[in-house]
Amino acid sequence: MGRVVGDRADKGGDGVTTSRSRSKAGAGLKVERVWTTEGVHPYDEVTWERRDVVMTNWRDGSINFEQRGVEYPESWSVNAANIVTTKYFRGAVGTPEREWSLKQLIDRVVTTYRTAGEEYGYFASPADAEIFAHELTWMLLHQVFSFNSPVWFNVGTPSPQQVSACFILAVDDSMDSILDWYKEEGLIFKGGSGSGVNLSRIRSSKELLSSGGTASGPVSFMRGADASAGTIKSGGATRRAAKMVILDVDHPDIEEFVVTKAREEDKIRALRDAGFDMDLGGADIVSVQYQNANNSVRVSDEFMTAVEKDGGFDLRGRLDGAVIETINAKKLFRTISQAAWECADPGLQYDDTINDWHTCPETGRITASNPCSEYLHLDNSSCNLASLNLMKFLRADGGFEVEKFVKSVEFVITAMDISICFADFPTEKIGETTRAYRQLGIGYANLGALLMASGLPYDSEQGRSVAAAITSLMTGTAYRRSAELAGIVGAYDGYARNAEPHKRVMRKHAAANDEIKPAGTVATAIQREATRQWTQGNKIGDKFGWRNSQASVLAPTGTIGLMMDCDTTGVEPDLALVKFKKLVGGGSMQIVNQTVPRALRSLGYPEEQVEAIVEHIADHGHVVDAPGLKPEHYAVFDCAMGERSIAPMGHVRMMAAVQPFISGAISKTVNMPEQATVEDVEKIYFEGWKLGLKALAIYRDNCKVGQPLSVAKPNKAVAETPTAEVQKVVEKVVEYRPVRKRLPKKRPSETISFSVGGAEGYLTASSYPDDGLGEVFLKMSKQGSTLAGVMDAFSVAISIGLQYGVPLETYVSKFTNMRFEPAGMTDDPDVRMAASVMDYIFRRLALDFLPYERRAELGIFTAKERAAQLQAEAEAEASGADLTAMAASAPVEVKVVEEPKTGPVAQPALETADVAAVKPAPSVGSSTELLEAVLGQVADAPLCFTCGTKMRPAGSCYVCEGCGSTSGCS
Hints:
The chain is an alpha+beta fold. Helices cover about 40% and strands about 15% of the residues. The strands form 10 sheets. Strands 5, 6, 7, 8, 9, 12, 15, 16, 19 and 20 form a 10-stranded mixed beta sheet that branches. The radius of gyration is 31 Å and the shape is globular.
């Protein structure tokens, strides 16, 4: 698998034979302690505890993972421990080989890095290697940073030592190359990673084959690759297949490529309306094509200028570059924006900007990216990632730990470069290129939390200046350490060929750093140190070169962000001010993000006001009208979703602020409201080019059919859009027809005989196998009578409504308390009196099929529950405390103790003093679902394929808070 061994000579990706020598005699890194204490092992500085990790499906309570007695520091959250245990611990559960402690996991990885560092001459002495290992251990233990997932999966195990999460492939205009693409992509998916490819070398459907026939074009070959990705995804990989497909804007098939996914969305709507299951993960969605890839168009400055001037643009053949067709650039740009408005694809990649920042143009152009668009480099290459937790560097006084941040970047970059020495790769071509160019991707998470905790709005000049300064400091330090490593173990093999362009890009980064206008003392201090790092690093690089052709990217940090207990991922703002937190021993609770009170204190609010504002947020999910909060501070608490959400251009401006200081690009999707127009999409894509971004993707809320729709008719702002084609698409998007979910032939049911005011009858209720009422039959009077016929018709109407998704509680609220004869006493101990037969029937159904919280809102209780309430009220009255209102609004768990002589005695399981603290918790399993419950709005997010909870955004991907699964690479 392409392992580097000893001092052998290797051919680099540019074909030059080079010698991979160990460090020069007497050279090597001298390592100083930063986080650790001499004579004390990092493990001895923390308090450890044993926990049981039991992962259940929150919908049905079934256990899908169980490992008891795992060991973690007390400071680690339940969620972080659960995800690390289930995702990263190696060995079969229940065997002696199974890892059971975080110590084992960290040691497995760090020991491998230290051993390889010593073997390949990175350290001046064994003592330096030991300090390096202790520092890495401390940082991982305290969640200061994390490597990307493949490191935790593979390093130190018998498996191939794959350390990279991001891959770029290449496809030429030949059937052999296309079939190799299918195979190589499949191998990458099998390992749980993602890849991207540019198909622009494949001749178009408007060109001829050598045999004289017409070529099928790249879009046709996308079908086969899409089917392969869908099959491998469902074959048990550690995560869903993630892939990116790119086509150059001057390719003759560009218009067909642009509309592929939008056309499939039309198909999804038609099939859904015909009754097929077209939700994400639905049984029939597999019949739709092109759903396993993100699509992007590579646009050039020439094209964007033609759009600006409303001019013509040439589409060129792939064989000889001849002009096949001249089109109107603005019309094609509108088609791209229209398709993105409809289904979020395609995104844009700005080709000239990407290649203007390319350190190795003499080797080849950058043509493609990984699935999330943050890794942009040579074809047939890979990148391993690691991300720093920025909140670990925020001081209590609001300052930033500049010196510790610099030292931490040094440790992480050194470790990442060492990993390339022993790493394995899925193909030899990728291995050769990666070893020759040593692409790294250091990044960070928790930027949004850092800005909020500092009292800075995400969409503000102050916020952007801090973000830009931190990013510049990170990349400047990374390249400075890379230059130092080049002086010890040599520059990357392709450096000699690319020395001048590499130096030019370093000067561009340094010049961009000089353009930062720091706002405030914190940003000023960070930018001052960044300037020093760029100056020093470029001076060292001029002498020794650089060890790495690329140093930094901003990745989604999905799973590893949860591992580090980060509130925000990558460069993202906070999702919302309330979140879903799992508790030790099971259960969960709603909490206000801990960055909120810290931000309020940073803004100078006294503690009593902080408590009042936090309580307001807990009740409402936002800060509007919070007691004592100044309106000018509202913007500090703006989030990606909610009552006050950040405007789309706010996201674009943040990306533009940090892009000049990133070697690669930024994984981020710009969320747009549902009422956004096609013109709004055009503006975002155009401004992205003007502001110097390398890649940009948008997502308009509810644009995908596979997501639940939150409204039933078009927003007025959209409906008034003058473009007829836009109005037509709006109608298609918002049209919604419910789908009937029929019960199986064999279903569980129960029949109850009842008597209301002397009138007798039978109620038969049938439910779905996975629970939930789906059918009701009522039998009263003799067959053939008028009343029997009316009741039969009523039963059918209710049953069909239930199967089309009408909630049972809706029927209960409408039919209970309906008064007509017969009425009066019943023979049901839980419903002693009924105002009518309908009143009784729906009270009985509520008791049998609705949870306590829903029934409590409707005032429907069992006899035992009413007895428990009376007992609680009596005890409260005896103690002088009036808890009647509290008990009525809180669910009281009831224990029934069997007494042979006196019958069941109901006893509250909760102490009466605790009753007031219990609130009906919404039925949720993630922060996204909690946000939906708080705001009363549907959030666009896919369900996790592993555990079924709703995922939350992480860059241009999604991550599941329940199990750590992602929809992309992290």
